[in-house]
Every structure is written in C-alpha cells, then in structure tokens.
Design goal:
By secondary structure, the protein is α+β, with helices and mostly antiparallel strands. The protein has helices at 3-22, 57-60, 67-83, 101-111, and strands spanning 26-31, 36-41, 48-53, 90-92. Strands 3-2-1-4 form a 4-stranded mixed sheet. Helix 3 (67-83) runs parallel beside helix 4 (101-111). One of its GO terms (biological process) is translation. Pfam families: Ribosomal_L18p. Keywords: Ribonucleoprotein, Ribosomal protein, RNA-binding, rRNA-binding.
C-alpha cells in the first residue's frame, strides 16, 4: 500500500475508535475516483441501516464522480436513513479531507434531515 493510503486509513481508524466509544450511529463515506458511497451503520457496527451510492440505478444516469453526484448521494442516504428511523448520526469521513465531494455529501445529508 502507498504511504498516502496508509496514513488515510490510520486517520480513519482513529475516528472510528472514538465513534465506537461514543456508541453513535455513523454516516460512513467512501470516495473513489469515479464514485461516492455512503452508509449509515449501527452503533455497534454490526448492521448497515441505510446506504446509497452513485452506482444506484437512479443516480447512475449522469456523471458519478463530481460534486453534483455527491449531493444526490447525500440526499438519498438521508431519505433512506429517515425511512429506517435514524435522524442523529456521527459523520465518519474515512480519513478523507472534509472538502469537495465529501463536504458536498455531508451538506446534502444535513439538508435531507440528518443531524450531526
């Protein structure tokens, strides 16, 4: 693995340990070069309560690797989380900078009704 990826995973592990301590439901985000993925994971980490990504049929039609796509994923995951009865989450950015697509997804999820 490259040093850059190892450092990102170390940041992610540190965040996840803190969130496990707090026993918080978390909104976990993964950003690849072409797609965005978001999951709402239970407090103990054993169950995915809601998920959305640019691979979903309704989001697949347009561009999948830009800020607009990230906003759509944020709104969709918020809608699905609310349907599952979750409104309060902790944001797990998986070691990525809170900037660009990650920030757009978080802002859209807030607009969709999630609180974090």
């Amino acid at each position: 693995m490259s040093d850059k990826k190892v450092i990102r995973l170390r940041r992610a592990r540190r965040t996840r340990l803190k969130l496990r301590e707090l026993e918080a439901v978390r909104l976990c985000v993964y950003r690849s070069s072409q797609h965005m993925y978001a999951q709402v994971i239970s407090a103990d980490g054993s169950q995915v309560l809601a998920s959305a990504s640019t691979l979903d049929a309704e989001l697949r039609a347009g561009s999948t690797g830009n800020i607009e796509a990230a906003k759509k994923v944020g709104l969709l995951v918020a809608e699905r989380a609310k349907a599952a009865g979750v409104t309060q989450v902790a944001f797990d950015r998986s070691g990525f900078k809170y900037h660009g697509r990650v920030k757009a997804l978080a802002d859209a999820a807030r607009e969709g009704g999630l609180e974090f």
